[in-house]
Amino acid sequence: MIVVLFGTTANVSLKYGLYVSNPTKGASPSIINLLLSRYFLIWFVCYTFMTILWLYVLRTVPLSQAFPVLGLMYALIPIASHYLLKEQVVLSQWIGISIIITGVILVVN
């Protein structure tokens, strides 16, 4: 689950960093501003730790159980973006999120 949380944090942070580096929709985003932002650093650190932890998980947990848990990122990222980035999540997405969570619970147990 820590791998999933790092992945979710990394993706939401990168999205927010892109938004902060380009607050106006008409201007082109500044890659330099993004690369030097704390949000890019958060993304980088989270992905580094996520990769290291994933290597450990692969050594200790059967892949058939570990890999489906990564699917939780498909559920947690929209939830986090809804609450933290104020992005709209429509009913069909909420249903999909529920299906993903239910599927992961069934596969892992």
List key phrases describing it:
80% helix; 0% strand; mainly alpha
Question: What can you tell me about this protein's structure?
Answer:
The protein has six helices and no strands. Helix 1 crosses helix 5. The model has no long low-confidence stretch (mean pLDDT 89). It is mainly α.
* N-to-C series of helices and strands: HHHHHH
Portion of residues in beta strands equals under 5%
Globally, the shape reads flat
Question: What is the number of E strands?
Answer: 0
Rg (CA only)? 16 Å
Structural class: mainly alpha
What would the average pLDDT be, to the nearest integer?
89
First-residue to last-residue Cα separation? 14 Å
Uncertain stretches of 5 or more adjacent residues: none
Give a quick account of the main beta sheet: strands, pairing sense, barrel closure: none
The total count of helices amounts to: 6
Helical content class: over 70%
Please give a quick description of this structure.
The protein has 109 residues and is mostly helical. It contains six helices and no strands.
Layout of helices and strands, plus pairs?
Blueprint: H1 2-21, H2 31-35, H3 38-60, H4 63-70, H5 72-84, H6 91-108
